[in-house]
Amino acid sequence: MSHVCLGIPGQVIELIPGYGGQLALVDVHGAPRKVNIGMLDDDPPGPGQWVLIHLGLAVDRLSPEAAAEALRGLELMGRGTDPEAP
Fold first, then answer.
1. Could you tell me which of 43, 39, 42 has the C-alpha nearest to residue 23?
2. Are strands 23-28 and 57-62 parallel, antiparallel or unpaired?
3. What does each C-alpha distance from 17 to 1, 20, 32, 35, 39 come to in angstroms?
4. Which range of residues forms the domain containing residue 42?
5. Which DSSP symbol is given to 21?
6. pLDDT tens over the chain, length 86 residues
7. Cα dihedral 78/75/45/35 (nearest 10)
């Protein structure tokens, strides 16, 4: 049985001081969000890098090209880049 994980790409703005180095401020479709990057602590992302977010956790690093492809996929599913869209 396979599972599908729908993640949202976001670009790291900055690491948030404290929290054991496990929180980052991430731009998600123009809205800043606090994201737990602890799962990536073997190679934490820095400002400008892209991550795949699922349930508030960064689960993978993305290239800019992969992030753009993920955003296009979300738009095809009817979820545009407007952070206020339902």
1. 39
2. unpaired
3. 40, 8, 16, 13, 17
4. 8-76
5. G
6. 444 557 899 999 999 999 888 999 999 989 999 999 999 978 889 999 999 999 999 999 999 999 999 888 888 877 555 555 54
7. -20
Please return the burial class of 30, using the count of CB atoms within 10 Å of its CB with bins 0-12, 13-18 and 19+: exposed
Residue 67 resides in a domain: yes
| Cα distances (angstroms) measured from residue 73 to each of 4, 7, 11 | 14, 11, 17
What pTM does this model have?
0.80
Counts of helices then strands in the chain (DSSP H, E): 1, 5
The Cβ-side half-sphere exposure at 77, using a 13 Å CA radius, reads 13
Residue 30 is given by DSSP the state T
Domain CATH for 47? 2.30.30.140
Task: Judge contact between 21 and 75, C-beta under 8 A.
Answer: no
